[in-house]
Structures are given as structure tokens and as C-alpha cells.
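Lab channel / #folding
Pinned by the channel admin:
"Please post every new chain as: sequence first, then the C-alpha cells as a reply. Keep commentary short and put observations after the output so the thread stays searchable."

First post following the new format, from NK:
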Amino acid sequence: MHPIVLIENPSENDYAVIHHGINEYAAHYGLAGTGGYFFAVYDENKKAIAAISGFDNFGPAEIGGLWVDEDYRNQGYGKALVEKAQDWAMVKGCNALTVFTLKNWPACVWYQKLGFIIEHERPGHANNSIGCYLIKNF
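Reply from TO:
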């Protein structure tokens, strides 16, 4: 057996191995390949102040991560990025957008204000937190 190697900061080429393999496998079942998205906002100094990334998951698209710098929160960047992700998903033919967050984080209520509903809750996260899987159907 070949050794398993940890890559702390994987490159796009590292991730491409996964996407390529999944897409080849999906083709055997007549499924269109998955893909990923990354949208970012930069300030006047070309410093990232907000970003969202995710992927198509054979029906729904997922938000893998959303971040807005604290100095730029409550200015509409997060909502605009989620809308970009939703637009991307709709163009890809996805039927929903999903996201995971912790129930006691402000993001859980925030996503609900954007039209997401809690689809599933799972206890057992750090500090006795409950994980929430939210979905917004199109």
C-alpha cells in the first residue's frame, strides 16, 4: 500500500485530482460532472475582504465556506455572495443551495433570513454545539 500524505495547504491541482475522479465516476451513471465556484470581494488595496466557495453536489449546490472580514460585516457582502452562489447553482441546473453551520452561531439565523430552512440538526459538535444543515430550494 502506498503511504498516505497530509497536504496542509492543497493546491488547485491537488483538488483537481478529486474533481476529475468524481466526474469520471459520475459519467458511468449518466451524471453531469461536478464543479466548484469561488467568488471574492477585494478592497481598494486588493486585499480580500469577503469570499464564498462551494461546489455542485449532483442536485443541490453546497456552500463550503463563507467569510466576511469583521470590518465589512452588515454591509451586504455576505448576502451578495450567497446570491452569486445561488445564481451559479441555478445556471448549473442545481435544484437547491445547502450550507452547514452551528445552531448557536449568528449565521444560522442569518441564513434563515435569506430563505434557508433547517433540514437537519446533529448534536455532538465542539462545546456541545448542534450542527445545522440548511437548504434553500429553487
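NK: Strands lie at 36-42, 48-56, 60-68, 96-102, 117-125, 129-137.
TO: also worth noting, The first helix runs from residue 12 to 27.
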